Amino acid sequence: MCACRFEATSPNSPVSPGEFEEYCNAYLNNMERNEQQSQEQQGQVKNDADDVYVQLQQKEQDLLLAAQLGKALLERNEELQKKNEQLAEEYAQKLEEMQQQRHELKFLMEIKEGQYENAIKDLHQDVEYLRRELEQRQQQSQSGDRERAQVVDELKQQNERLTDQLRQAAKTEEQLQNQVQSFRDQLNSKRVSMHEHVQQLEMLKEEIAILTERKNELDRRIAAVTKERDELLRTLEESQDRIMMLEKQNREQEHQLHLQEQGLGELREQNSQLQEQLEGLSLHVASHRYDNQESLFNELGQSENSLDMELAAAGVDVLKEELLLVYQELRAMAREITRSRSETLSPDDITSQDMRKDHLQMVTQEIRSLIQALSGKKECPCLNSPDSVEENDRQELEEKISMMRQELTRTQRELQKLNQQMISKDEELHQKTAELTSLTSKISIQELELQQLEMSKIQAERDRLQDQALTTVTRDEVIEGARQDRNEAISKRNSMEVELAKAKLDYMTLHKQLMEAIQQKIELSQQLEQWQLDMHDLIGTQMKRQIKDETEKDELKAEASSPKRTFHIFP
């Protein structure tokens, strides 16, 4: 029935799109019907002559239908050539409109460049403000260093004064020994009577009682001083614990800074990847605009011719295999024409045993929709106008610029967080310096009290030696007592020097930590400034490269618009 209708049409009359679609449907239905009949006939007796005649008659009808279909396709090709000439004229008109739009875009680009320069000026002002703040912080740190140097000089002077006092005490000890010797000589000369000796003994006993009371008072004072020293040692231990905690916090902050540096490196890698994507998009748009059109239609014609020849010569099994190949080729052409990235079928996904009716119907519907789009003067995605391509490129560039701005705002937020962390670290350093000054003041007060106690003890020992000189104590006992007192004074001096050395070590460690923190802060600020400069340079180079790519695209489009292009379905 379909073959009769196809033969009824005159060979010279033009074929309308509706009739062409009916012919395609009739041809496909006939192929499906033949396939069903071949499947049914495989189960029947093969020696039936009537079935063979029916198959031969059906194949002859298929050949006639294929011939008429090829003729209709040739007539359709002539119509498409005429339409192609009309499209070329429309393309020239659209090219003029595109040039006008290009001038408008250049004007908009100049406005955007002015805005970008203003933003860069604002950022430079922010950088200058941060540099001034950094200089102020450095001046403050230098003034703190000078104050600490003054404190160290004062401590050295106090130590020198203590050594001078110890030397003077040694000299006074020698003088006292000389006085004792002179007193003994006087005693030997004054021993005249027992009565005077007894009176002197009573007086000495009274003085001994007074001295014992004084000694008890001194012992109580020494106990109080030792208690205060223990309290100061506890405060020193607490300060050391605090220093350990602060060192731990400093290490954690260094770890956070390391993580932030890694984040900055990732951002730089993302920026480089975006730059590479921009270059790849510009090259892809410039080179793959008109390359795939003629090859697709040539493949379509070759597949149809090969199908006609192989249907006439092959059997049922060969027909299945060839239908599979035709399906795969049509599927590939549909994917190439529509540029659909969602299609994931490969030629190896379907075999001849798994091939069904709906597979061919799906591909024929896709080809039919493409033919309707061509007949209705709708543009195929592979034949997009340069205006739409330029619009897509511009949209992609605007999206990339917006993403880069978002990254810039995010990095500015991270900079603000880092500044807050630096401020908190400065506060902790100020607290450390305050604790250090309080400890040094306590140590100086303790040293003054110990000096006063030592002076009072030296005076008491001198009085005791003078009193002993008046007694009948032997010379050896006096010398032994003086040596013991001297040894006690030396041991106390050594202990005080050890405590002073410990305090100096604590002071030096705190000073070193303070300088390290200041150095880390300076390095971090320098890294942030360098990163900001890198971001500005990267944005500027990308904008220049985008402008250069757009100018090159415009030149290529102007060169491509000069010769007229013709598109053929068949070679």
Automatic annotation (TrEMBL):
Signal sequence coordinates: none
Region (Disordered): 548-571
Pfam families: HAP1_N
Record's keyword annotation contains Glycosyltransferase: no
Keywords tagged on the record: Coiled coil
InterPro entries according to UniProt: HAP1_N, Spindly/BICDR_Dynein_Adapter
Domain HAP1 N-terminal: 39-106
Keyword Coiled coil included in the entry's annotation: yes
Coiled coil regions in record: 28-284, 394-534
Composition skew (Basic and acidic residues), residue ranges: 548-558
Domain of life according to the entry: Eukaryota
Name of the molecule in the record: BICD family-like cargo adapter 1 isoform X3
